[in-house]
Automatic annotation (TrEMBL):
Residue ranges annotated for the MRH domain, each copy included: 29-142
Protein name: Cation-dependent mannose-6-phosphate receptor
Species: Ceyx cyanopectus
Gene encoding the protein: M6pr
Signal peptide bounds: 1-23
InterPro entries named among the record's database cross-references: Man-6-P_rcpt (IPR028927), Man-6-P_rcpt_cation_dep (IPR000296), Man6P_isomerase_rcpt-bd_dom_sf (IPR009011), MRH_dom (IPR044865)
GO terms for MF: protein domain specific binding
Amino acid sequence: MSSPCHTSAVLLVFMAFAVGAGAEQLKESSCDVIGDESSESQMERALLKKLEPLSQIRFNVTVEKGKTENYIYHFRVCREVNSISHDFRGLVQMDKQNGKTTVIGRINETQVFNGSDWIMLIYKGGDSYGRHCSGEKRRAVI
């Protein structure tokens, strides 16, 4: 069994390959991360502009490992998963067995990086692992 500290990263790689599966169009038009726009650098704003077309899609991926681990992951690029709650959840995990929701990463604690042909978002500030992983907070690397 894999360490719970690394499970999120592995699942996010899976999500990258499942882009077309379970995507739902939304009507918002711009990327909104890193708190206030005034705290974003020019480079970050340029990268977020490139991601705007993806900000209108909600990704939903179901992962099942036997009978004990059945989750649905809800993810949005640059947007809150649930815009009604206003708690900056960018990626959440929902346990299908008990309905418990765990925040993996928040958009207001995002780091943005790029290379010649890629952009990486790191959503930090997720729920704590508790007794596992020294109580570290979860994060998502996309």
